[in-house]
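Encode chain A's predicted structure.
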Amino acid sequence: MSERKGLGLQWQMLAGFLIGLVAGLIVYTGARGAPWVDAVTTYVTQPIGQIFLRLLFMLVIPLLFSALIVGISEMGEIRALKRVGLRTLAYTVVVSAIAVAVSLASVNLLQPGAGVDRAAAAELLAAQADRAGAIVRTGAEQPAGIDAFINIIPNNLVEVMGSNSAILSVMFFALFFGIGLLLTDTPAARTLQRGFEGLFDVTMQLIMIVIKLAPLAVACFMFNLAALFGWDLLIRLSAYVGVVLLALGIQMFIVFPIILSTLGRKNPIAFFRETQEASVMAFSTASSNATLPTSLKVADEELKLPPRVARFVLTIGATANQNGTAMFEGVTVIFLAQFFGVDLTIWQQLMVMLVCILGGIGTAGVPAGSLPVVALILAMVGIRPEAIAIVLGVDRFLDMCRTTLNVVGDLVAAQVISAAEPDSDVPIQAAQPAG
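Encoded structure for chain A:
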């Protein structure tokens, strides 16, 4: 079916978004409160949406767990490229932190989700109480202060694997285990690593099957939301999209040029001109993994980077250096918190920031790869995961934009790491005039 000339998944999701939105607005205008509307939402649209979310939650822990272990353990080249590997890891963490800080600052300053009718928001949350109450209660009971920091280290892996609110503990163990695999150079350890690679491949295949249900789920979600919030939903969505694009733009056109000029020894204008092929491919496919061959070609033929460095950094970066994904997750979580009137403390926002950075490392570089992570973060901070329905309809466009930032960010990292190599022959271009 996918091989026939037909409507792509992104267009199917957009169609589902529009159908659900228009139908919901019609109900909001002419039949709000009618008994048949309650029957449709209770027995049709809500169950379909719940099934979609449950399938995502069922797969997200094995996806993150295997992706993080594989991503860290694949730095096995650190033994031969120890300096490059450590610099890549440090660069990824620091620049991802900057990216998430920019996104959180933007969404807190502009408040795109504020101003929604609180009674309507409470009504929507109450409608989902039976289905998501346990998840939300667990997220709301998260410890604070030093206890939260200590609890990141799990004392029972089986217990935290079964809790959507313990994502940090799962990530900590995955990172710790990945480092163990990295340091254990035995045939059995390499076999175990291939086993985790297989788990990642299988989980990704199942995720892609579930994502095919997204158009129907989006239509159901949007019908429920539009029937309750009406035209206010459109206003808030446009503000949300604007804030996401603003945050991505700041990272792309302010942060990256500064990094290129100071650390990468590269003229930013020349860099963007030379990497435009990879940017177009990333925007078109919305997949960092699919763009990797183009990125390697650009690094070799256009940027003239050392192949041993570019190949290592770009391959790892396709999964680990996801600036755009981390920013999208941060903006989305805070936006939805504002939308539903959930006040997140500074500590909770810092926790969101940390999870977004780690989630960027563990998120698959495929279309819609970050949606399960966003849903999990929502549950962690006490917001019902159903809230992600609000942004599903516009996710494909934002996915294309954030993937472009991800791919450009990988190439920036390759440029910076190459320039830092003692034997690097990367030309100094930062001081050259544009042209």
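Confidence is low (pLDDT under 50) at residues 1-5, 128-142, 430-435.
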